[in-house]
Amino acid sequence: MRLTRLGSINLEPPEEFNFHLTASAYSFHWQFDGKYLYFPVIRNPLLIVRTSVKDNVVRVDLYGVTGKLSKDLVTEHVVRTLGLDEKYYEFYNIAEGDPLLAEVARSLRGMRLRTTDLWTALIIAVCQQNASFKQGWRMLYNLFKMFGERVTVEGHGFLLTPPPSLIAKSSSSELMRAGIGYRARSLLELARGFDDIPQQSPRELERSLRSFKGVGLYTARLALLLAYRFYELPPVDRWTARIVCEVYGCKGVSISEAEEVLRKVWGKWSGLAVYYLTIVLDAEPLSKALDRVRKGLLKPYMSSDKLTPLTLYLRDWFVS
DNA sequence: TCCACATTAGGAAACACGCG
DNA sequence: CGCGTGTTTCCTAATGTGGA
Questions:
Q1: Nucleotide nearest to A131 in CA–C1' terms
Q2: Nearest nt to A130, CA vs C1'?
Q3: What proportion of chain A, given as a percentage, has pLDDT over 90?
Q4: Which is nearest to A46 in space by CA: A21, A20, A68, A64?
Q5: CATH code given to domain A116-228
């Protein structure tokens, strides 16, 4: 599908906003090309925005299949997605004196967590289960390539998240071909029940999401973090637990201990801290990540020869 | 007894390694 | 050089345990 340009909006960025870092993190090449960050605002009728920053102005170009559109609604969505209204001062104050995330307040300052819709966040979270960063994002890549609709914006190919309706009518074996293993069943059940999830607060949503088979505490919280910036309750996996316990000195290395320590140090910013932890350690497998923590190498590589959350967009890493 | 919390069992996929 | 196995890296779900 080819989309036509419907107009544009200019937004004033907050101070210390780093568009390039915000757009780089965990983006596939069809989402960010080094200059423009593309993301959907409305699915039906389809409306996609192309965002960029020039001369300290956030430029938002609108693309769709024509129709009425509310610029206020688009503005609100872009502000929310990029976190233009976020105030990280408190978070940075803690980060500055922190043994793990000091770099977030320095070289990564101005980088925002970019949100997705809840459905996309759920797919991401399910793919992250029992898998390294590389494994998880390969699964996601395969799902997008196999089931996502391709649209063209100014000659740039963009892939939409395969919607619940499409996943729901797929067979488990079809989904398995994306290399997602047992997660196919979880995804299928989520797709079938997704539209019946009521609108509720994040804390209530956590309960609703966990009622799905295959969605535990980690998956639910990661999804809520990515979709709603639900920072106060962190998604803690074993990777996070080991690192957090190593650095802040827990008695053991359990998930619950790590969460307790995280909440003590970061308070209502715990979830955001976990997100940035994956960035500064390039989401490396545990043994390498622990090694880097001990050596104090707590800055992302930023080199283009290695797949990391910040280099994912650079090329087609999973092309087979 | 029942609830909260901790532990254990079970499992998918990638990678490394050794064998023929 | 290819193949199979074991190890590593993670998670959820079921089971176990201890305190109110």
A1: C10
A2: C10
A3: 31
A4: A64
A5: 1.10.340.30
